Amino acid sequence: MFGTLGGPRLLLRRLREVMAEPVSPQARLDKIVVHIAANMVAEVCSVYVLRADDRLELYATEGLNREAVHLTTLRTGEGLVGLIAKTAEPLALADAQLHPAFVYLPETGEEIYSSFLGVPILRGGNTLGVLVVQNKARRTYPEEEIEALETTAMLLAEMIASGELQSLAPPGRDIALRRPLALKGTPVADGVGLGHVVLHEPRIVVKQLVAEDIKSEMERLDTAIGAMRKSLDLLIERGKLGPGEHRDVLETFRRIAHDRGWLRRLHEAVATGLTAEAAVERVQNVARAKLQRRTEPFLREWLHDFDELANRLLHQLTGQSFVGAHKDLPYNSVIVARAMGPAALLDYDRAKIRGLVLEESGALSHVAIVARALGIAAVGDVANIVDLVEPGDAVIVDGISGDVHLRPPPDVEHSYAEKARLRARKQEQYHKLRDVPAVTKDGVAIDLLMNAGMLVDLQHVAETGAVSVGLFRTEIQFMLASRMPRMSEQEALYRTALDLANGKEITFRTLDIGSDKVLPYMAKVEEENPALGWRAIRLGLDRPGLLRSQLRALLRAGSGREMRIMFPMIATLGEFETAKSVVENERALLRRHGRAPPSSLKLGVMIEVPSMLWQLDETCRCADFISVGSNDLVQYLYAADRDNKRVATRFDALSAPVLNAMRLIADKAREYATPLTLCGEIGGKPLEAMVLLALGYRGLSMSAASIGPVKAMVLATNLSEAEDVVANILKEATGGQSLRDKLRKFAKTQGIPV
Ligand code: PEP
Ligand code: MG
Q: How far is residue 636's CA from residue 97's CA, in Å, rounded to a whole number?
């Protein structure tokens, strides 16, 4: 059938001419349907566009009653057109009226047409509309015609995505591309951000869809595939992988790059008259539309791999660099990415970023650590976000609830703007408290310390008025690096940190890696139970080289200054003593090399393994200080993985088992006059912190953002009253149930902000 009228190539060429004509959008659309109908020898060609209210509106037709244009609508799922929109699959029927989904629309006059071929208009796997041809005679549409119509639909997708058709939509009948979407992900970094979408990896815009010369497009495609395969081979052989590039992932890419089915589909798409890049996009759109509706994890993984590879191929074809430069980042940017390495986020101008939305990374990813340190509201695990956005779209990121509002309606935007204003006002109030000493109503001074791990954190020491850094997580430098940091690099970081702290103490914690904290460049040790496995000090003592070089770096950086070092995951006092002897050796070595040791050196034990609860006397005697790692201690007391939502929320830290353990530690520290702090998350939550004060804690270390709210709590608390009430509640407690409601009630009646 195509043969007689020139086939899809001629059609594409005609349509390209129509696209370039200076006519109104409606006139252009009207011409397009005429050309398609003529080329496909169909009596009817119609374009339906999906509206924001989920209805498909007839936007243009050749052959059906013209009066029906902009009047006829169908719901998604209704009729054959609605079915195509819903399934995102083409539908070819010799006798349309026999199909169970067929609905009769009298205003269109379509009853005289027997055969029906419809294809979805897709962009990024999302349906934007439906393109239909119909014939009076009963006929079976061959595969090439279905493919040709799909290719033609790409042109319409571009037209819709460019916003050209929006002018045809009266208010309230917006087309779907601009429809508001409320999406849900997992909270990654606290805060609320309003701004406009910036794609981390700018989408390649395929400007030329129609090929000038098929043969040369085939050659371009083959050359690009060859080059891409070669670059994958090189990456794998050299083993020099960039952030987010893992060997097994690259191996998968290489397999796909040789996948016959994929290559055949690409070649077929070029054969219909598309340019090589348009062919890549078309094949990918179809794959996405098919797989996005599937929920099996392996299929989603597979789709992602295909997406990545298609992207690489597009970059190869267009010569655009793989990661976009963001020199001209606009103000109020919300960065949207599938996944991102931590270093990439640091490359952005922080002052211009309002938020971050990630498709794959969750709260435990390395980029999450950076987002939190930079105070960027962030949400992770948002399915398909990259395909759903258009650069410049308005977006709201709620890093507290995990909500993302794309193109928010005015009422949502207003309420979030209000929320953001309230937060800013609160922040301002906390800021005013910066120089107010943290003293309870009855005159007890409390030390509010800060947790840190990156140099950017240290600017908050001054901003928040924290008295010192109670926990410096040294592993973060290791986690963010693409290879093991050298001793000199570690030393430089510690020295700069001490300089930035400007005389305030920093308690450095030695490497706490293993379990969830994995280093991309270190061989992963397969363990059945990593949280109970080879991590933190256990690894440090078994790999003395690693621990020694870190301690050397710390002692050198602390030359002539006060130095505090503590060890994570100590389970027996013997481990602490061994670690201490390594420090002593290093200190002696430093002297022998004629370097000044730290002016004072304090060594501490983290209490985060329950076995330490029965070694407190000896520990308090031989450690210079102790610090409770309540995140781990609570996880081990309840045998509930701190990162597993299914179990982590079953137990409450505000319960007798945990609080009695906390009290025991505080009592022993007081008995031996051993300085005590707590540096887990509960220290930064006002209600939990109030209870800890009542149990005897006088030093709490927390994230920078928590210092204001906790200080407000301290200032409003009468500690001796709180001590009595907490002691009574604990005495009466039975079982391990949560005491939260009772404790909160007390705080409320006392007017303590928790
Ligand atoms: C803790 O376990 O409470 C702690 C502060 O250490 P991390 O969260 O780094 O394990
Ligand atoms: Mg810990």
A: 65
Cβ contacts of 221 within 8 Å, gap of 6 or more: 266, 267, 270, 276, 279, 317
> Is residue 49 over pLDDT 90?
yes
Mean pLDDT of the chain, nearest integer:
90
Nearest CA owner, ligand 1 atom 4: 629
Instruction: Pick the catalytic residue from 35, 315, 326, 366.
Output: 366
Residue 674's Cβ-side half-sphere holds a number of Cα atoms within 13 Å equal to 27
Q: Whose CA is nearest to atom 9 of ligand 1?
A: 473
Q: Is 622 a catalytic residue?
A: no
The CATH number fitting domain 7-169, selected from 1.10.8.60, 3.30.470.20, 2.60.120.620, 3.30.450.40 = 3.30.450.40
Fold of 433-749: TIM Barrel (3.20.20)
Q: Which residues contact 62 (CB under 8 A, 6 or more apart)?
A: 30, 33, 34, 36, 37, 44, 45, 46
300-335: burial string, b at 16+ Cβ within 10 Å, e else: eebbbebbbbbbbbbbbbeeeeebeebeeeeebbbb
Ligand 1 binding site (Cβ under 6 Å of any ligand atom): 471, 473, 512, 608, 629-632, 679-680
Number of neighbouring beta carbons within 10 Å of residue 520: 18
> Tokens for 404?
């993302």
Residue range 247-252: mean pLDDT, rounded? 71
Q: Quote the percentage of the chain above a pLDDT of 90.
A: 65
Query: Can you read off the two tokens belonging to residue 61?
Result: 């037709």
User: Would you say residue 455 has pLDDT above 60?
Assistant: yes
